[in-house]
Amino acid sequence: AQSVTQLDSHVSVSEGTPVLLRCNYSSSYSPSLFWYVQHPNKGLQLLLKYTSAATLVKGINGFEAEFKKSETSFHLTKPSAHMSDAAEYFCVVKGAGNMLTFGGGTRLMVKP
Amino acid sequence: DTGVSQNPRHKITKRGQNVTFRCDPISEHNRLYWYRQTLGQGPEFLTYFQNEAQLEKSRLLSDRFSAERPKGSFSTLEIQRTEQGDSAMYLCASSLWTDYGYTFGSGTRLTVV
């Protein structure tokens, strides 16, 4: 069995400041982990993925995430927020099967 | 390649009616997934096809729900005797054999009144 907990349902930052979206996972197998972003009225877009290669994963739009097995965490970061980053972000785990398990989502708000 | 296409984008139906949604995956992708997303929640897995074979079904997929992928290309999801609790966004995704990247469509938003 696998599960994902996104520790913050809402995060608010000012434009130009760092972003941190927290995610903890649980999996019986060595997991694959993903971050997806969902803009209003748009489909889910893959930001980045971890599949047992480098623990620091770089994604699109300046986002990156670090896989920490000892902490069972996969937090998403970005050095400088942009207004266009405002969206819903989902941390996702894939275990031994083909099913993706999504976290509850974190809504990122960016203030000018 | 235009990505994963879902139709219709929106569907409003009366309680008790049947509805059918269509998903056209990326052409070379042999795996196809259906997820359901309710307001304020993350998507939940419904079912998975590998080519034309339906290999996994969630307990969320009640007897009123049926999915098909007759020729291993497009897929349909039918809900019979719709209930208000079926109101949600229905998402389709596709992927390759060994590719862990799933491409999602924009979804079909169902409203049952």
Which characteristics define this entry?
heterodimer; A: 112 residues; mainly beta; six-stranded mixed sheet; four-stranded antiparallel sheet; 12 strands; 0% helix; 56% strand; B: 113 residues; seven-stranded mixed sheet; globular
Counting helices, strands and paired strands, the structural category of chain A is: mainly beta
Give the helix tally of chain A.
Answer: 0
Rg of chain A: 13 Å
Q: Which stretches of chain B of 5+ consecutive residues score pLDDT under 50?
A: none
Q: Which band does the percent of strand residues of chain B land in?
A: over 45%
Largest sheet properties of chain A = 6 strands, mixed
Q: What is the global morphology of chain A? A: globular
Helix amount of chain B: under 10%
Please give the alpha-carbon distance between the first and last residues of chain A. Answer: 41 Å
Average predicted local confidence, pLDDT of chain A: 92
N-end to C-end Cα span of chain B = 36 Å
Instruction: Indicate the multimeric state.
Output: heterodimer
How many beta-strand runs of chain A? 12
> Structural class, from helix and strand content of chain B?
mainly beta
Tell me about the biggest sheet of chain B? 7 strands, mixed
**Which sequence of SSEs, written as H and E, runs from N to C of chain B?**
EEEEEEEEEEE
In words, what does this structure look like?
In chain A, strands 2, 5, 6, 10, 11 and 12 form a 6-stranded mixed beta sheet that branches. In chain A, strands 3-9-8-7 form a 4-stranded antiparallel beta sheet, with no helix packed on it. In chain A, strands 1-4 form a two-stranded antiparallel ribbon. In chain A, 0% of the residues lie in helices and 56% in strands. Chain A contains no helices and 12 strands. Chain B has 113 residues and is an all-beta fold. In chain B, the strands form 2 sheets. In chain B, strands 2, 4, 5, 6, 9, 10 and 11 form a 7-stranded mixed beta sheet that branches. Chain B has a 4-stranded antiparallel beta sheet with strand order 1-3-8-7, with no helix packed on it. Chain B is globular and about 40 Å long. In chain B, 35% of the residues are buried. The model of chain B has no long low-confidence stretch (mean pLDDT 92). The chains are: A mainly beta (112), B mainly beta (113). The A-B interface holds A 4, 32, 34, 36, 41-46, 49, 51, 90, 94, 97-105 and B 4, 31, 33, 35, 40-45, 48, 50, 55-56, 58, 91, 93, 100-107.
